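Annotated sample (chain length 72).
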Amino acid sequence: MASDFYKKLGKKVSYLRKNMGLTRETFSEKAGLSAYYLGEIERGVKKPSLDKLMQICKVLNIQIHELLNLEK
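Output written by the structure step:
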């Protein structure tokens, strides 16, 4: 169940990043993450901390609850 959540979360991060027209490298630089780590988040391999999710949300210009709403 938890891994399913992180896979869905990763897909959403990837979708939103691509929607902004940003490469993984550009996005990760803006978010203060390594491109490798961001890739692991997007694949659902890593479980990002709240701080990392907030950094991602800042670049995406969304609130954390918008990112965590995986029903859509």
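Annotation: The chain is about 70% helix and 0% strand.
Annotation: The mean pLDDT is 95.
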